Amino acid sequence: MPLGSLDDHLHGRPSNKKKLDWNTRMNIAAGAARGLEYLHDKMKPPVIYRDLKCSNILLGEGYHPKLSDFGLAKVGPSGDKSHVSTRVMGTYGYCAPDYAMTGQLTFKSDIYSFGVVLLEIITGRKAIDDSRPAAEQNLVAWARPLFRDRRKFSQMADPSLEGQYPVRGLYQALAIAAMCVQEQASMRPVIADIVIALNYLASQTYDPSRLPVHNSRKSSSSYKSRKDDEQKPLAGTTTRDDDDEQTRLND
Questions:
Q1: What is the β-pairing status of strands 74-75 and 47-48?
Q2: Mind listing the pLDDT tens digit of every residue in the chain (251 residues)?
Q3: What own/partner pairs with CB < 8 Å and gap ≥ 24 does 127-136 have?
Q4: CA separation for the pair 154, 143 (Å, rounded)
Q5: 3-state secondary structure 71-140
Q6: Whether the Cβ atoms of residue 157 and residue 206 lie closer than 8 Å to each other
Q7: Can you name the residues that pair with 74 across neighbouring β-strands?
Q8: Which end of the chain lies in a sparser environment, N or C, as judged by fewer CB atoms within 10 Å?
């Protein structure tokens, strides 16, 4: 593909990539979700991708995403079966914990992987980054405590965006990612619902020339005016005192 992979643009050398703006990121996320929807809902028989990651999302002209490398793909469960029992394969950091522990592969295994990819798109961080402090090396483990406090959401946006993103859009994208990476598979959404949500976000074109640039270092007056709203956790979540507890979202 002429523009390489999503991984190249998010994590490649600065000289080798063009900065992805917010609109492009949401269009890539929505396009990748539609590709996964095709595998899950439109192929006969349906297919579980099993290796969804940024390096397997290739970008064509206009940053149009295409899923690639189906070497690990498996035909999904049929009839009344809920899963496919198989040897655990995939990429560390993207593999759903339930699949890693049991070897039971489901469509929700792909949803977890998609949530990790979406977090990478939003944050610019790698799924696993050994160069970061221990508490930040695993992207999902780093993000879960932050999902509970909107005052910290701006800390999750990729610094290369330089504050050029819609606050509401950031919140909504993070909510989708949070639902996808639920530890309990049954709590994760189906791909059709993710497509609807991301198609909407992709349709809401952000124009930084008409809207303010957001900075995590707000003035005290600006912070106070938004304090009540920002203290609310993501819609559908319950805040836990123990940071090790999982963020829970309603279906």
A1: antiparallel
A2: 678 999 999 998 555 567 899 999 999 999 999 999 999 999 999 999 999 999 999 999 999 999 999 988 899 887 778 788 888 888 999 999 999 999 999 999 999 999 999 999 999 999 999 999 999 999 999 999 999 988 899 999 999 999 999 999 999 999 999 999 999 999 999 999 999 999 999 999 998 877 666 665 443 333 343 444 444 444 434 433 334 333 333 33
A3: 127/53, 127/54, 127/91, 127/93, 127/94, 128/92, 128/93
A4: 12
A5: CCCEECCCCCCCCEECCCCCCCCCCCHHHHHHCEECHHHHHHHHHHHHHHHHHCCCCECCCCCHHHCEHH
A6: no
A7: 48
A8: C
Catalytic residue IDs: 51
CA distances from residue 99 to 17, 61, 181 in whole angstroms, order as listed: 34, 35, 13
Residue with structure tokens 């759903």?
96
Residue type, 158: D
pTM, entire model: 0.83
Compute the distance between CA of residue 195 and CA of residue 189 in angstroms, rounded to an integer: 10
State the DSSP code for 183. S
CA atoms of 65 and 32, how far apart (whole Å): 6
Q: Specify the fold of 6-230.
A: Transferase(Phosphotransferase); domain 1 (1.10.510)
Instruction: Decide: 94 and 177 in contact? Cβ < 8 Å.
Output: no
How many Cβ atoms sit within 10 Å of the Cβ of residue 247?
A: 23
Amino acid at 29: A
